[in-house]
């Protein structure tokens, strides 16, 4: 089978690997779609993502979906041919957390994540034609939802977790600063959770167009000098840019809540934070998700449409080109998808032809 393997900075290859066989409690997935995330780009560009550095080659990808090709012994409740995605996180160790964070498995100190170099040996991801996955991490895709949208349940879960870190949104005005894929999914998640009005802000017109398609009522083109709205009760900061923090805190209403979704640098960075104190703003972090992938799949089944997020599709053997498009701010890309199987519907082939 073929797999997308990163060997170091600027070195990604489509390699032949042995097709896996299911162990006890495992299923084999015949994968169909994968979504490129910022961590995939980071491993390709820098050989590292956050504090995790490549010690040996790694199969990329933690956003993926396909169909069950084989069941290992002891697996029940699943069937061959069933369309599924995966929860990519598996805590390592006894799983016991302090009472203050009981159940918040995203905060477990040691988590193996698909497509991550955090441990040695690394945890290979799902950008391959087949993948063995523990049955406990399998999540069925609802009827009427395709595997392409199912592959985006993972980033949608990140957005739903962020929305869950905020006060009740129903009827409230919400600001989302930064409209990359996660920010645009936060727009959709806020709308799904009943926000009264959603305003999206970004520096690029293409990102703002995606945010509007995902449900934003209004947009702020920061590059054109448009300022953020004032006195917004709930704000989501999804850019991860330290320079954005001052304006975003200023936009947050006195006594309001700012949810930090975008990853901030792990090194010192200048930021204007005075309004955090003088406006008594509640500033909370949001990291990955717990079981919100189940909520994401229910939302997709309810009709939440994430296809406006998808701007490019590439076959697996053009993975390096797909990474380059996803990494280039001039490409106008939002979510770039890899077709992990040689099979494609006529609609997919037509969409690809229109983009090439």
The mean pLDDT is 95
User: What is the assigned CATH homologous superfamily of the largest domain?
Assistant: Medium-chain alcohol dehydrogenases, catalytic domain
Along the chain, the helix and strand elements come as: EEEHEEEEEEEEEHHEHEHEEHEHEHEHEH
CATH topology of the largest domain: Quinone Oxidoreductase, Chain A, domain 1
Helix content: 25-40%
The CATH C-level class name of the largest domain: Alpha Beta
Q: Which overall shape is indicated by the principal axes computed on the Cα atoms? A: globular
Derived structural class: alpha/beta
**Count of extended strands:** 20
Tally of domains: 2
In the CATH classification, which architecture of the largest domain applies?
Alpha-Beta Complex
Biggest beta-sheet profile: 7 strands, mixed
Portion in beta strands? 25-35%
Unreliable stretches (pLDDT < 50, length at least 5) are: 344-356
Total helix count?
Answer: 10
Please compute the radius of gyration using only Cα atoms.
20 Å
Distance between the termini: 26 Å
Family: Belongs to the zinc-containing alcohol dehydrogenase family.
Cofactor: Zn(2+)
Domain Alcohol dehydrogenase-like C-terminal: 181-299
Keywords: Metal-binding, Oxidoreductase, Zinc
């Amino acid at each position: 089978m073929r797999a997308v393997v990163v060997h170091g900075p600027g070195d990604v290859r489509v390699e032949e690997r042995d097709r896996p066989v299911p162990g006890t409690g495992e299923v084999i997935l015949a994968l169909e779609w994968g979504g490129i995330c910022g961590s995939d780009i980071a491993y390709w560009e820098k050989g590292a993502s956050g504090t995790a550095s490549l010690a040996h080659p790694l199969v990329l990808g933690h956003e993926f979906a396909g169909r069950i090709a084989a069941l290992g012994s002891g697996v029940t409740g699943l069937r061959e041919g069933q369309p599924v995605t995966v929860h990519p996180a598996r805590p390592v160790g006894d799983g016991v957390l302090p009472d203050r964070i009981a159940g918040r498995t995203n905060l477990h100190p040691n988590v193996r994540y698909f497509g991550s170099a955090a441990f040695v040996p690394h945890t290979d991801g799902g950008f391959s034609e087949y993948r063995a996955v523990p049955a406990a991490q399998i999540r069925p895709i609802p009827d009427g939802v395709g595997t392409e949208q199912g592959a985006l349940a993972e980033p949608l879960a990140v957005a739903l977790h962020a929305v869950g870190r905020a006060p009740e949104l129903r009827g409230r005005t919400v600001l989302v600063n930064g409209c990359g894929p996660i920010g645009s999914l936060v727009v959709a998640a806020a709308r799904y959770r009943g926000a009264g009005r959603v305003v999206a802000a970004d520096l690029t017109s293409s990102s703002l167009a995606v945010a509007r398609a995902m449900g934003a009522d209004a947009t702020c083109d920061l590059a054109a000098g448009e300022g953020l709205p004032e006195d917004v009760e709930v704000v989501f900061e999804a850019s991860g840019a330290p320079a954005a923090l001052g304006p975003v805190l200023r936009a947050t209403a006195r006594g309001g809540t700012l949810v930090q979704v975008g990853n901030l640098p792990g090194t010192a960075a200048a930021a204007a934070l005075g309004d955090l104190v003088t406006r008594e703003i509640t500033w909370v972090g949001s990291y990955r998700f717990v079981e919100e992938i189940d909520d994401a799949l229910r939302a997709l089944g309810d009709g939440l449409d994430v296809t406006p997020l998808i701007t490019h599709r590439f076959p697996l053997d053009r993975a390096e080109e797909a990474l380059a498009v996803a990494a280039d701010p001039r490409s106008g890309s939002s979510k770039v998808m890899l077709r992990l199987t040689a099979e494609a519907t006529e609609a997919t082939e037509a969409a690809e032809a229109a983009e090439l």
